[in-house]
Design goal:
6-stranded antiparallel barrel, two-stranded antiparallel ribbon, 1 helix, 15 strands
């Protein structure tokens, strides 16, 4: 017992590390912290206009409600010197509402936009509509009158000591109008998509 105690005392005095692990030059300590990509998010406000072109023909005659549609951005959209929506970005949506043609009014529809897809496949959900000045309703115009009514307007002109009576024939629209027609958006037609809610953009293309 005294010999063991003496040996341990000698080892401690000489500085030998009894519990040291064998050295291995190939062993490396890895940092457990994962580096995350730092995105600079930009908010695209509601009311933003996105110029686009229709990728297919859309008609109230053969497209039902819920029919999926596709548009393609025709210009680069910048915000604070950052390209937010590059040209050729795809925008997808569907026909939200269709009103059939009736006597006096053409058919109409509203097209809702739900997402956009960048060229690299990244998707961002959005809320928007194909924009028109009539509350985003495409079509719905009044039809032409079905008939015109002729109405004479009599006039009296004084020429010296006698009067001359004349009549002017006026043509005005009648009360009835023609049957409405279906409304369509041709393929390749330029239009505007308006955002109805802000969009938080966290992804941009660098090339």
């Amino acid at each position: 017992m005294k010999k063991i105690t003496a040996i341990l005392l000698i080892l401690l005095l000489t500085g030998v590390n009894v519990f040291a692990a064998p050295e291995d030059e190939n062993v490396t300590i890895q940092n457990p912290q994962i580096e995350m990509r730092d995105y600079d998010g930009i908010e695209l406000p509601a009311g933003t206009f996105i110029p686009a072109v229709s990728a297919q023909e859309i008609s109230t005659q053969y497209c039902p409600e819920g029919y999926k549609v596709k548009f393609i951005a025709t210009n680069d959209l910048f915000l604070y010197d950052t390209k937010i929506i590059p040209k050729d970005t795809e925008l997808y949506g569907y026909i939200e509402k269709i009103n059939e043609p009736i006597v006096g009014t053409n058919a109409s529809m509203k097209i809702k936009i739900t997402k956009m897809v960048y060229a690299d496949g990244f998707e961002i959900p959005i809320k928007g509509y194909v924009h028109t000045s009539n509350n985003n309703i495409i079509g719905g115009e009044l039809t032409q009158p079905a008939e015109f009514v002729k109405m004479p307007h009599y006039q009296t002109r004084f020429q010296g000591w006698y009067n001359v009576k004349g009549a002017t024939l006026q043509v005005r629209p009648g009360r009835t109008r023609k049957m409405g027609e279906h409304t369509r958006v041709a393929a390749g037609v330029d239009l505007i998509i308006i955002l109805t809610a802000p969009v938080w953009i966290t992804h941009t293309l660098t090339n």
